Amino acid sequence: MTTSFQIEPWRALSPEVADVIEPELEAITEEILATIASSVPEYARPLEGRFGRGIRTGVGEALHQFVALIRDPGPGRGPGRGVYVELGRGEFRQGRTLDSLQAAYRVGARVAWRRIAAAGREAGLAAEPLTVLAEAIFAYIDELAADSVEGYAEAQREVADLRRRRRQELAALLLREPVAEAADVLAAARAAGWELPRLAAAAACAEGELAGVARRLPPDALTTVVEGVGCLLLPDPDGPGRAEQLARAAEAARLALGPTGPVSELPASWSLALALNGATVAGAVPTSPLLRAEDHLAALLLFEGRGLATRIADRRLAPLRGLTEKARTRMRETALAYLRHGGNAVAMAADLHVHPQTARHRITRLRELFGEQPDDPDARFELEVALRAG
Fold first, then answer.
1. Which of 6, 77, 126, 175 is the most buried (most CB within 10 A)?
2. 4-159: CATH topology
3. Residue 204's Cα: distance from chain center in Å?
4. What is the SS3 assignment for 176?
5. What distance in Å separates the CA atoms of residue 256 and residue 282, rounded to the nearest whole number?
6. Distance from chain centroid for Cα 84
7. Is the sign of the CA dihedral 354, 359, 365, 366 positive or negative?
8. CA distances from 364 to 82, 358, 370, 374, 378 (A)
């Protein structure tokens, strides 16, 4: 079973050990600072300004807190952690990894142990407390290093969160109708770290699949959620290599892609992508991993105007109501083939996979049901809308 002494070895030391160490703190601080400057290349500069104050404070506070813990371990390290969390955050802000700070901690531990051990021997400390003291110093430094790792990670998360928020705000601005002012879009793009492309398109997918799709796209894709639908704004989707990237992303989820155009046309591209996504979910468009709105404009027109299309169908297809389901289906197919091929029985037969004579019989039956509608331009248009909407 692990004891508190093993986790925090300084708890096993007598408070008198603090009296031995305390007079040495100033000299130890200066030697640690000098050794760090000569041993850690990133810190090989005068300890001036904010940087110098941070390092000097970190070393001084570390030593004083260590002595305070030996003297009274009860309160623990909680109150003093902020200094080392902030050191980690500072390293991230300076664009450095944690390697230099971790190296500085190791240097500090070695120098501190050498000076403190010498002071302990001079004060007559026995071997056992000196051993515990060594364990305490290195365990303490490990905790300082862990605090800095935590601070570094917090700073990373904050920057990532800020970048994500700014990109979401930019996406909302790009999709806004009426179209946002160009100066506002440019300022938002700069704040989000996104280079405005010459051409772009919007794509839609299921909200739950957005993250998986985004991971397969280059980092210049803006992703957000709009009214419960995953939204992706894609720079130059027709550019070199982009088709392969889109195909790879579509392996993670079905993508409905709006048309490509200038950034100012993204609201229209998103509107079509959203409509195509809804039409696919409703089964109004045949599904495939990557759907392009430009390939399904007629289907989208009918889907978006399905209320009117239903009213037209109710009126124009009324002659089929008295038929059985099987006969109704057969006559719908015949009527659509008739409209496609202008009443040519041979072409209709090939389309319907029947004998031309059978096609002629069906044409006769079609005229019995619909009269002259298939040959009247206005009626023919509405009849085709009704058949295709169905």
1. 175
2. Globin-like (1.10.490)
3. 15
4. coil
5. 13
6. 30
7. positive
8. 90, 10, 10, 12, 21
Q: pTM of the full predicted structure?
A: 0.61
Dist CA 222 CA 291 (whole Å)? 19
The helices-and-strands tally (H runs, E runs) of the chain is: 17, 5
Residue with tokens 């130059």: 236
- Asked if 176 and 267 count as a contact pair (C-beta separation under 8 A), the reply is yes
**What is residue 169's three-state secondary structure?**
helix
Q: Of 324, 334, 329, 328, which Cα lies nearest the Cα of 366?
A: 334
Given a cut of 80, is residue 80 above it in pLDDT? Answer: no
Each domain of the chain, given as residue ranges in start order, spans 4-159, 198-304, 306-389
- One-letter amino acid for residue 144 of the chain: L
Measured distance CA(110)–CA(27) in Å, rounded: 14
pLDDT tens profile 310-366: 888 888 999 999 899 999 999 999 999 999 999 999 999 999 999 999 999 999 999
CATH architecture for segment(s) 198-304: 2-Layer Sandwich (3.30)
Which one-letter DSSP state was computed for residue 390?
-
CA 304-310-313 angle, to 5 degrees, is 130
Q: Is-contact 55 47, C-beta < 8 A?
A: yes
For strands 229-235 and 200-206, give the pairing.
Answer: antiparallel
